[in-house]
């Protein structure tokens, strides 16, 4: 075989290797699926009192600011509690059934506000135990989701039901401990809302801007993980 032919064959081989390398990289990039995110929570998650929850709730805004890198499902249940003995336990919701039959990449929990009601506070000693159990169950999903636990936003107006900032602060520390015990990530959404009553409609439920701020905080945590 002549040297010229040998060089031509080697040249073609190099070109094929380069093309194949490019194809693999492109395929890898295309194969990066959009992350499926489940937002588990109560009325602060569902978007209660917002004009358009489907657009203004924090899960909806999270999906928007992610620029399609996240597919977000809102599984908020107004009034829901982590406590199994609570007046509206998340444990009995259809939304939890939906979560357990899903294949999420990420799960964000923002619960605890309603656990501070007078009717639920009597069971507060079980809060940490019930929260840990909830997380453990979600960790066992086949998709092996990454789980984030949010602190409970501050309450700017005490309610007749007994919800107060003092109680919320106590449970937030327990949420932090649950994250440590379960090896999940803790997201501080409290600091950004201290002394910011204007970001709440009634001192309890976030405005569209407040929900947007929660979305931004959650987005940063997910991106950093």
From TrEMBL:
InterPro entries linked to this entry: Ester_Hydrolysis_Enzymes, SGNH_hydro, SGNH_hydro_sf
Keywords: Signal
Keyword field contains Cytoplasm: no
Domain SGNH hydrolase-type esterase: 39-211
Signal peptide positions on this chain: 1-26
GO molecular function, one term: hydrolase activity, acting on ester bonds
Origin: domain of life: Bacteria
The protein's name in its UniProt record: Lysophospholipase L1
Lineage, highest ranks first: Bacteria, Pseudomonadati, Thermodesulfobacteriota, Desulfobulbia, Desulfobulbales
């Amino acid at each position: 075989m002549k040297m010229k032919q040998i060089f031509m064959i080697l040249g073609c081989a190099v070109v094929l290797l380069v093309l194949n390398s490019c194809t693999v990289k492109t395929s890898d990039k295309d194969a990066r699926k959009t992350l499926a995110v489940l937002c588990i929570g109560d009325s602060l998650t569902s978007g209660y009192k917002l004009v358009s929850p489907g657009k203004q709730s924090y899960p909806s805004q999270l999906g928007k600011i992610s620029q399609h890198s996240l597919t977000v499902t809102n599984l908020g249940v107004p009034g829901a509690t982590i406590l199994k003995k609570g007046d509206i336990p998340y444990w009995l919701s259809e939304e939890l059934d939906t979560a357990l039959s899903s294949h999420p990449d990420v799960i964000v929990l923002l619960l605890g506000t309603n656990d501070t009601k007078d009717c639920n506070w009597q069971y507060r000693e079980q809060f940490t135990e019930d929260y840990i159990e909830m997380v453990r169950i979600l960790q066992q999903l086949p998709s092996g989701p990454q789980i984030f636990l949010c602190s409970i936003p501050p309450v700017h107006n005490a309610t007749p039901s007994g919800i107060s900032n003092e109680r919320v602060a106590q449970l937030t520390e327990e949420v932090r401990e649950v994250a440590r015990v379960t090896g999940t990530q803790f997201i501080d959404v409290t600091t950004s809302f201290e002394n910011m009553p204007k970001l709440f409609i009634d001192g309890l439920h976030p405005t569209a801007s407040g929900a947007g701020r929660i979305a931004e905080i959650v987005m940063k945590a997910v991106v950093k993980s």
